[in-house]
Amino acid sequence: MTSDSTTASAADAPDGDATVSNVVLVTVDSLRADAVSPYDSERRSPVIDDLADGGTVFDRAFATGNWTPFSFPSILASEPVFARSGDIGVDESDTLAEVLSEAGVATGGFNAANGFLTDHWGYPDGFDEFEPFVTSVGSSVYSRYLAAHPTVEAWIQLATSPVRRLGSKLRGDSDDRPFLDASRMFDVEDAATAFVDDTDEPFFLWVHYMDTHTPYVPAPRYIREVSDGIVGTHQMLHAHARTSLGLEVGERTLRELRTLYQATVRQVDASVGRLLDSLDAAGVRDDTAVLLAGDHGEEFQEHGHLAHYPKLYDELIHVPLVADVPGLDGGRVDGHVGLDAVPPTVADLLGVEASEKWHGESLLPALRDDAESTESTDSTGSPDSATGSADESAEPTDDPDDPTDDPVVSVTVRGEDVTQQPIPRSLSDGDLLVSARDDDWTYIENVDGDAVELYHRPSDPTQQENLAVDPGERERSVIDRLKPVIDDHAALLRERGAAAEAAAAERDEDDEEVDEDLEARLEALGYK
Fold first, then answer.
1. Which CDD domains match (predicted)?
2. What does the pLDDT read at residue 302?
3. Burial of 305 (0-12, 13-18, 19+ CB in 10 A)
4. Which sequence spans correspond to the domains of the chain?
5. Helix (H, G, I), strand (E, B), or coil: what is residue 333?
6. Fold entry, domain 22-368
7. Can you say whether the dihedral through the CA atoms of 209, 212, 218, 223 is positive or negative?
8. Is the CA virtual torsion 504, 67, 289, 205 positive or negative?
9. Of 10, 168, 181, 274, whose CB count within 10 A is highest?
10. Confidence band (pLDDT; 50, 70, 90) for 504?
11. Residue 503's closest CA among 512, 511, 514?
């Protein structure tokens, strides 16, 4: 395969030598920034590290929500959740795939069975090839049961591990495959590779991994890679048994969960490496840009829970964003950016005009190192605390053309209980919480209640001391600057939500029911 460009590439390097014909966007569910080595040198993610070494790392990249359906409208449609139709989908949005497809770019999207990224919410729109792999997960009682019961799957992994390891050694293979591909990682790999091989024109390929989402069930070899090598699959059994039974999560269980999580990160990292190998084999790696991001983070009891419940602290909002563009090396960019920058950046790289409806700004200037290249910001060094920021005295910039100037806004909706299920799917499902972040400060407000929070991340990277309780002059000036941003965002969502509800009432019809297979997959992910 060769890549015959039909679009005018915008990613010429400063010397004019390098061009981009294709873009691969890799998104990883529940991937927090300090889980990968570009943000924490103690982590093990060599493939992602290589991407960072040759490209650009955005030290302060933030998701726009704590859940996939709250974050992905920004990643694939450059707009806030609820902003278009009042729900969590992108049905009425100008999606990245639609804009690129209309410009003659081939588009392929492969989602590893996240039920929120399906046709029910409009995500296939604009993709020439799209496969969510949801049906394959819910196609049998057996597979549904195992996906929804990680302890049982862990038992199977444990019981078969010695036999599998022996078989792998006899064959000369490595035991890099889980007993069951519950995350659909290899399905996604195969589909993405076939798309690359079969496409003879400029392309956009989106791949979404689920391995780092609960339940963490990595192949045994990756557990050994990220641990001391003595303990292994039984960690999976012990940790999943305690959490599934609702038992107290002590330090041992928490440590095991962190280890399993890091093992799944390494598993994804290896899969990304194989995806890059397929680009090499197709002869298109040299003119293909690769962007990698987490859609949101993961909590390990920093604020009292596991997984990703409706909160807006850094362990859930600070995510990796790494871009490897042929011929461009932006170094490390320490200005704050939101994931709504992804669509305009991809369009810019492919020489396609961005939609006027998009909220984000292209990061191509930073990729060209028009922005100042900086050393890495300091990080805390373990997945039980969120990454920190840099200089305490840093002030936000005032350059209207700087995409890192405006605060990054993130939202969630919280019911009466933090752990309430199912996940809220409209503004009427609970209180609206909105946060605004600049380089150093996080301001969070429950706009339906009286709760406000303010955190100075350089001095409090895990956001434990709420400075809004007794604000001084400095804190008050920050609140005065960030509160109007939150007020404007909340007003926008309220207006769009009210309009959507009125339109639905006029039609006198309910939302289309989620089909049985999709509900089964959402339940398997813990969204009952």
1. sulfatase_like
2. 75
3. middle
4. 22-368, 408-525
5. strand
6. Alkaline Phosphatase, subunit A (3.40.720)
7. positive
8. negative
9. 181
10. low
11. 511
